[in-house]
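Sample pair:
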Amino acid sequence: QVQLVESGGGLVQAGNSLRLSCAASGRTFNGYIMGWFRQAPGKEREFVAAITRSGAITMYSDSVKGRFTISRDNTKNTVYLQMNSLKPEDTAVYFCCSGSSTSILARAYDYWGQGTQVTVSS
């Protein structure tokens, strides 16, 4: 079992940057695919990014590609989401998750953090 805790969210102006962190505890962190999803009020949970065990392969949604970067540091059991050029439509609760395969589907991931709020003002 893996426990995940997100941090780094906050309120920023459009065009600025934030870096989210997801600290994992428990066994087999290095054996899991890691991902980020987000959910805005009244909307479905949306895939953002995912990264393989070694970090060699990453996936991004079209809405964030070129602006966001997912990375991981297995020595620290931590995954990151660097968010640049933030837009008001990026406002959402961001969730870290882990699973056994890369997927844009939330049901493919087994463990989830509680989320961290990101608010982008215009």
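The chain is about 0% helix and 55% strand.
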